[in-house]
Amino acid sequence: MNNDMKKFFKSLKFKMALLYSGILLVLCLGFFLVMNIFLVDYMQKDIGSPRLVGFNNAGFFANLNDEKIELLKESRQNDLANIRLISIYSILPFVVLSFGGGYLIADNSLKPLEKLKEEMKKKSTKNLGEKIEFEDKGDEISEVIQSFNDMSEQLGRSFEAQKEFVENASHELKTPLAVIQANVDSILADSKIPQEDLFNMLDDSKKSIIFMNKLTEDLLLLSLVDVDFEKKKLNLRDLLDD
Protein backbone atom coordinates (compact mmCIF):
# COMPACT_ATOMS: atom_id res chain seq x y z
CA MET A 1 0.00 0.00 0.00
CA ASN A 2 1.54 3.28 -1.12
CA ASN A 3 1.54 6.53 0.81
CA ASP A 4 -1.38 7.99 -1.15
CA MET A 5 -3.63 5.09 -0.19
CA LYS A 6 -2.53 5.32 3.43
CA LYS A 7 -3.31 9.04 3.46
CA PHE A 8 -6.70 8.35 1.87
CA PHE A 9 -7.71 5.77 4.49
CA LYS A 10 -6.52 8.08 7.28
CA SER A 11 -8.24 11.15 5.83
CA LEU A 12 -11.20 12.78 7.51
CA LYS A 13 -13.20 12.50 4.29
CA PHE A 14 -12.87 8.71 4.26
CA LYS A 15 -13.79 8.43 7.95
CA MET A 16 -16.83 10.68 7.55
CA ALA A 17 -17.98 8.79 4.44
CA LEU A 18 -17.48 5.47 6.23
CA LEU A 19 -19.50 6.69 9.21
CA TYR A 20 -22.26 8.00 6.94
CA SER A 21 -22.34 4.73 5.00
CA GLY A 22 -22.35 2.69 8.22
CA ILE A 23 -25.31 4.60 9.63
CA LEU A 24 -27.29 4.15 6.42
CA LEU A 25 -26.36 0.46 6.33
CA VAL A 26 -27.66 -0.07 9.87
CA LEU A 27 -30.88 1.76 9.00
CA CYS A 28 -31.23 -0.28 5.82
CA LEU A 29 -30.68 -3.57 7.64
CA GLY A 30 -33.19 -2.51 10.28
CA PHE A 31 -35.75 -1.72 7.58
CA PHE A 32 -35.20 -5.06 5.85
CA LEU A 33 -35.47 -6.89 9.17
CA VAL A 34 -38.76 -5.24 10.09
CA MET A 35 -40.09 -5.79 6.58
CA ASN A 36 -39.19 -9.49 6.68
CA ILE A 37 -40.85 -9.90 10.09
CA PHE A 38 -44.11 -8.46 8.76
CA LEU A 39 -43.84 -10.50 5.56
CA VAL A 40 -43.25 -13.74 7.44
CA ASP A 41 -46.23 -13.00 9.66
CA TYR A 42 -48.37 -12.25 6.61
CA MET A 43 -47.19 -15.24 4.58
CA GLN A 44 -47.90 -17.70 7.39
CA LYS A 45 -51.29 -16.23 8.22
CA ASP A 46 -54.16 -18.74 7.97
CA ILE A 47 -52.07 -21.18 5.94
CA GLY A 48 -52.73 -24.11 8.28
CA SER A 49 -56.58 -23.96 8.20
CA PRO A 50 -58.98 -24.54 5.28
CA ARG A 51 -60.47 -21.44 3.71
CA LEU A 52 -63.74 -20.82 1.86
CA VAL A 53 -63.04 -19.43 -1.59
CA GLY A 54 -65.63 -18.68 -4.27
CA PHE A 55 -68.75 -20.72 -5.21
CA ASN A 56 -68.96 -24.30 -6.42
CA ASN A 57 -71.40 -25.57 -9.05
CA ALA A 58 -74.06 -26.04 -6.42
CA GLY A 59 -73.86 -22.41 -5.37
CA PHE A 60 -72.02 -23.00 -2.11
CA PHE A 61 -68.58 -21.85 -0.93
CA ALA A 62 -65.83 -24.34 -1.76
CA ASN A 63 -63.18 -25.34 0.78
CA LEU A 64 -59.51 -25.51 -0.15
CA ASN A 65 -58.23 -29.02 0.20
CA ASP A 66 -54.90 -29.94 1.78
CA GLU A 67 -53.12 -30.14 -1.57
CA LYS A 68 -54.12 -26.61 -2.53
CA ILE A 69 -53.19 -25.35 0.90
CA GLU A 70 -49.72 -26.86 0.51
CA LEU A 71 -49.39 -25.27 -2.95
CA LEU A 72 -50.43 -21.92 -1.52
CA LYS A 73 -47.98 -22.32 1.34
CA GLU A 74 -45.17 -23.24 -1.04
CA SER A 75 -45.98 -20.26 -3.25
CA ARG A 76 -45.84 -17.91 -0.29
CA GLN A 77 -42.54 -19.40 0.87
CA ASN A 78 -41.08 -18.91 -2.61
CA ASP A 79 -42.26 -15.30 -2.65
CA LEU A 80 -40.71 -14.72 0.76
CA ALA A 81 -37.41 -16.29 -0.35
CA ASN A 82 -37.35 -14.10 -3.47
CA ILE A 83 -38.00 -10.97 -1.41
CA ARG A 84 -35.17 -11.90 0.96
CA LEU A 85 -32.83 -12.57 -1.96
CA ILE A 86 -33.65 -9.23 -3.55
CA SER A 87 -33.07 -7.53 -0.19
CA ILE A 88 -29.63 -9.14 0.16
CA TYR A 89 -28.59 -8.28 -3.39
CA SER A 90 -29.75 -4.67 -2.99
CA ILE A 91 -27.58 -4.11 0.12
CA LEU A 92 -24.22 -4.07 -1.72
CA PRO A 93 -25.07 -1.38 -4.30
CA PHE A 94 -26.82 0.57 -1.56
CA VAL A 95 -23.64 0.52 0.54
CA VAL A 96 -21.52 1.61 -2.44
CA LEU A 97 -23.90 4.43 -3.32
CA SER A 98 -24.18 5.57 0.29
CA PHE A 99 -20.37 5.60 0.65
CA GLY A 100 -20.00 7.59 -2.57
CA GLY A 101 -22.69 10.04 -1.49
CA GLY A 102 -21.12 10.35 1.95
CA TYR A 103 -17.71 11.03 0.43
CA LEU A 104 -19.12 13.76 -1.81
CA ILE A 105 -20.88 15.37 1.16
CA ALA A 106 -17.70 15.17 3.25
CA ASP A 107 -15.61 16.58 0.39
CA ASN A 108 -17.96 19.54 -0.01
CA SER A 109 -18.08 20.15 3.75
CA LEU A 110 -14.30 20.02 4.18
CA LYS A 111 -13.38 22.27 1.24
CA PRO A 112 -12.85 25.28 3.55
CA LEU A 113 -10.40 23.20 5.60
CA GLU A 114 -8.55 22.23 2.43
CA LYS A 115 -8.25 25.91 1.56
CA LEU A 116 -7.06 26.65 5.09
CA LYS A 117 -4.39 23.95 4.78
CA GLU A 118 -3.11 25.35 1.49
CA GLU A 119 -3.03 28.90 2.84
CA MET A 120 -1.19 27.77 5.97
CA LYS A 121 1.51 26.23 3.77
CA LYS A 122 1.99 29.62 2.10
CA LYS A 123 2.40 31.48 5.39
CA SER A 124 5.80 32.96 6.18
CA THR A 125 7.24 35.81 8.20
CA LYS A 126 6.51 38.12 5.26
CA ASN A 127 2.75 37.55 5.12
CA LEU A 128 1.74 36.61 8.66
CA GLY A 129 -0.72 39.49 8.88
CA GLU A 130 -2.63 38.53 5.72
CA LYS A 131 -6.08 37.04 6.32
CA ILE A 132 -7.57 34.05 4.53
CA GLU A 133 -10.68 35.02 2.57
CA PHE A 134 -13.64 32.72 3.20
CA GLU A 135 -17.43 32.66 3.23
CA ASP A 136 -18.65 32.80 6.81
CA LYS A 137 -21.41 30.17 7.03
CA GLY A 138 -21.65 30.36 10.80
CA ASP A 139 -20.45 26.78 11.27
CA GLU A 140 -17.52 25.32 13.21
CA ILE A 141 -15.18 25.37 10.20
CA SER A 142 -15.82 29.08 9.68
CA GLU A 143 -15.00 29.64 13.35
CA VAL A 144 -11.72 27.74 12.93
CA ILE A 145 -10.70 29.85 9.93
CA GLN A 146 -11.68 33.07 11.72
CA SER A 147 -9.65 32.02 14.76
CA PHE A 148 -6.68 31.30 12.51
CA ASN A 149 -7.04 34.73 10.89
CA ASP A 150 -7.10 36.40 14.31
CA MET A 151 -4.07 34.42 15.45
CA SER A 152 -2.21 35.16 12.22
CA GLU A 153 -2.95 38.88 12.58
CA GLN A 154 -1.69 38.90 16.17
CA LEU A 155 1.46 37.01 15.19
CA GLY A 156 2.04 39.46 12.35
CA ARG A 157 1.81 42.43 14.69
CA SER A 158 4.04 40.72 17.25
CA PHE A 159 6.63 39.87 14.62
CA GLU A 160 6.66 43.41 13.26
CA ALA A 161 7.01 44.82 16.78
CA GLN A 162 9.83 42.38 17.51
CA LYS A 163 11.56 43.27 14.27
CA GLU A 164 11.28 46.99 15.00
CA PHE A 165 12.52 46.46 18.55
CA VAL A 166 15.56 44.48 17.39
CA GLU A 167 16.41 47.18 14.87
CA ASN A 168 16.16 49.88 17.56
CA ALA A 169 18.19 47.81 20.03
CA SER A 170 20.87 47.20 17.41
CA HIS A 171 21.03 50.91 16.69
CA GLU A 172 21.31 51.70 20.40
CA LEU A 173 24.16 49.20 20.80
CA LYS A 174 26.15 50.59 17.90
CA THR A 175 26.94 53.91 19.63
CA PRO A 176 28.53 52.56 22.85
CA LEU A 177 30.36 49.86 20.90
CA ALA A 178 31.74 52.51 18.57
CA VAL A 179 32.92 54.57 21.57
CA ILE A 180 34.65 51.57 23.15
CA GLN A 181 36.27 50.57 19.88
CA ALA A 182 37.51 54.12 19.22
CA ASN A 183 39.00 54.39 22.71
CA VAL A 184 40.71 51.00 22.48
CA ASP A 185 42.11 51.84 19.05
CA SER A 186 43.44 55.16 20.34
CA ILE A 187 45.10 53.53 23.34
CA LEU A 188 46.69 50.84 21.20
CA ALA A 189 47.85 53.34 18.60
CA ASP A 190 49.51 55.75 21.03
CA SER A 191 51.33 54.37 24.05
CA LYS A 192 52.18 57.89 25.30
CA ILE A 193 48.63 59.11 25.89
CA PRO A 194 48.41 61.61 28.74
CA GLN A 195 47.08 60.23 31.99
CA GLU A 196 44.06 62.52 31.95
CA ASP A 197 43.08 61.58 28.39
CA LEU A 198 43.51 57.91 29.22
CA PHE A 199 41.28 58.30 32.25
CA ASN A 200 38.60 60.03 30.16
CA MET A 201 38.71 57.29 27.53
CA LEU A 202 38.38 54.57 30.14
CA ASP A 203 35.58 56.48 31.84
CA ASP A 204 33.70 56.82 28.55
CA SER A 205 34.20 53.11 27.88
CA LYS A 206 32.91 52.25 31.34
CA LYS A 207 29.79 54.37 30.79
CA SER A 208 29.22 52.65 27.46
CA ILE A 209 29.57 49.23 29.10
CA ILE A 210 27.11 50.23 31.85
CA PHE A 211 24.66 51.41 29.19
CA MET A 212 24.93 48.12 27.29
CA ASN A 213 24.48 46.12 30.48
CA LYS A 214 21.34 48.09 31.26
CA LEU A 215 20.05 47.55 27.74
CA THR A 216 20.66 43.79 27.89
CA GLU A 217 18.88 43.63 31.26
CA ASP A 218 15.89 45.42 29.71
CA LEU A 219 15.91 42.95 26.82
CA LEU A 220 15.97 40.03 29.23
CA LEU A 221 13.10 41.54 31.20
CA LEU A 222 11.04 41.97 28.05
CA SER A 223 11.68 38.36 27.08
CA LEU A 224 10.09 37.28 30.37
CA VAL A 225 6.89 39.25 29.87
CA ASP A 226 4.95 36.26 28.50
CA VAL A 227 6.33 33.81 31.06
CA ASP A 228 3.77 32.48 33.53
CA PHE A 229 4.91 33.53 36.98
CA GLU A 230 3.72 31.78 40.10
CA LYS A 231 1.39 34.09 41.98
CA LYS A 232 1.15 34.03 45.78
CA LYS A 233 0.02 36.42 48.48
CA LEU A 234 2.63 38.42 50.39
CA ASN A 235 2.39 40.32 53.63
CA LEU A 236 3.40 43.90 52.86
CA ARG A 237 4.19 44.59 56.53
CA ASP A 238 6.73 41.75 56.57
CA LEU A 239 8.38 43.16 53.46
CA LEU A 240 8.59 46.64 54.99
CA ASP A 241 10.00 45.24 58.23
CA ASP A 242 12.71 43.44 56.28
Could you characterize what this model shows?
This protein is mainly α and 242 residues long. The protein has 2 domains: 3-111, no CATH class; 140-226, Helix Hairpins (Orthogonal Bundle), CATH 1.10.287. Helices cover 75% and strands 3% of the residues. It is built from 7 helices and 2 strands. The chain has helices at residues 3-10, 12-43, 66-109, 111-122, 140-189, 195-223, 236-241; strands spanning 52-55, 61-63. A two-stranded antiparallel ribbon has the order 1-2. A hairpin with a 5-residue loop joins β1 (52-55) and β2. α2 runs antiparallel to α3 (66-109) and α5 (140-189) packs antiparallel against α6 (195-223). The two termini are 72 Å apart. The model is unreliable at 48-62 (pLDDT under 50).
Main features:
rod-shaped; 242 residues; 7 helices; 2 domains; single chain; two-stranded antiparallel ribbon; mainly alpha; Helix Hairpins
Q: Kindly name the structural category.
A: mainly alpha
The overall pLDDT average reads: 76
**Total domain modules:** 2
What proportion strand? Answer: under 5%
Order of helices and strands: HHEEHHHHH
Count of alpha/pi helices: 7
Net shape: rod-shaped
Global Rg: 43 Å
Helix content: over 70%
Count of DSSP E strands? 2
